[in-house]
Amino acid sequence: MFSKRTKIKILLQSDKTDFEATVMGWVKTFRNNQFIALNDGSTNQNMQVVAELGLLDEPTLKRITTGACIKATGKIIPSLGKGQKIELKATAIEILGDSDPEKFPLQPKKHSLEFLREIAHLRFRTNTFGAVFRVRHALAFAIHKFFHDRGFVYLHTPIITASDAEGAGEMFRVTTLPLDGTAKDKNGEINFKDDFFGRSTNLTVSGQLEAELGAMAFSEVYTFGPTFRAENSNTARHLAEFWMIEPEVAFADLDDNMNLAEDFIKYIIRFAMENNREDLDFLAQRLAEEEKSKPQNERSEMGLIEKLEFVLNNHFERLTYTEAIDILRESNHNKKKKFQYPVDAWGIDLQSEHERYLVEKHFKKPVILTNYPKEIKAFYMRQNDDGKTVAAMDILAPGIGEIVGGSQREERYDLLMKRMEEMNIPSEELNWYLDTRRFGACQHAGFGLGFERMVLFVTGMTNIRDVIPFPRYPKSANF
Length: 479
Ligand code: 4AD
Ligand code: MG
Known about the structure:
The chain is of the alpha+beta class. It has helices at about 10-15, 60-65, 115-120, 125-150, 210-220, 255-275, 275-290, 305-315, 320-330, 330-335, 350-365, 415-420, 430-440, 450-460, and strands at about 20-30, 35-40, 45-50, 70-80, 85-95, 155, 160, 175, 200-205, 220-230, 240-250, 315-320, 365-375, 390-395, 400-410, 445-450. It has three domains: about 1-105, CATH 2.40.50.140; about 125-170 and about 205-465, BirA Bifunctional Protein, domain 2, CATH 3.30.930.10; about 170-200, no CATH class. It contains 14 helices and 16 strands. Strands 6-10-11-16-15-14-13-12 form an eight-stranded mixed β-sheet, with helices on both faces.
């Protein structure tokens, strides 16, 4: 299919020399009017293309600039220079696309991540983002492989929905009604009958409810798609549009759910370690350099690779919410009033400072917290016999905080209906969902993994806006 060229990665991987090859890519640097560092995105390594003096005329040489796209044909030979094993001794070089060096914003030097975020359409061409997005790809592939190999069915749940799966109400509205006020009826109410779907609709916050329907037929399903939250969270951990993976498993309880989540996370990390080692080594180096600019006490104890290996080789700590509250309440950190939100009573929602204390200071490893107070969790979680807690589980990761949220589901119709009433969830709108509890209900459980938070964890990047190609967050929907 790609007989016109060979990928640079393929050429660099083999030890073969003395054969004819064509490469195509974008110029990183051009030295001494002879040495082109060429990158085609297949790897962070560049191919050194040598244009011997006299091969090209002066006007063509001037067009070999950083960012230009070129095609080079020649012989692959052992490199005489340091830094690369092989190089391409060009017999022909063609400029496919010029790049005005006065205007191209990427220079062969280190740019700040903030600057690169402003030119997100070009940042794929940097080493850092090349590595990040190849790793993101590998993780996505590993996710499908993990579930496929275990017989899960990939279910495509709707993006546009009339229900609020989390009951949290932080949704983007989808409408074709005019914004000029003419969509209102005599009483000043919006007339959704005239809207495209004839009812009020939103972008989905989660595919879980539909996944539960799938699990009641296929036994094991998963979703992997974009989800949307209109929460006004301007943090390095939140996006308005993010990707979520949501497995849902019939006949599973909370323990099965935790085991699946832990196996799953370890599997995809291992896949990236085995298949993207070069990119991860690069990102580890990048992180180590970034850490150097921090004060000693804020630096992380482990490098990126060490951290990933540590996660692979250790069990996630499992404890209940109640046990976690005790640890937090008794901690010196709390007693010295170092938490912004003091931990005084059972029932509080954990803030990310609390989650990070547990993971980074107390246990120093990923933690699974279970059995949260029902008041701070969604309506669909299975109610425990104590009448106070639900069979929830959150996985907290070092440096990230919550990475997974899940639960065993309330499969008992009466108890589910009662909880929905208490929480003012309109049951008429969820009749289709309630049918799973009417016809062949069974124990089941599932969870949601925030894909970008997972990519953050594996790449060691620190801002979630740097691990999705075109981030959406409050006041920003560029590109
Ligand atoms: O905890 P959440 O809200 O759980 C659900 O949506 C369930 N329906 C999942 C399920 O049981 N099937 O979200 C799940 C995960 C979080 O743990 C977090 O990793 C991620 O999604 N997440 C976000 N990631 C980026 N930006 C946001 N605004 C996020 N909100 C949640
Ligand atoms: Mg959650």
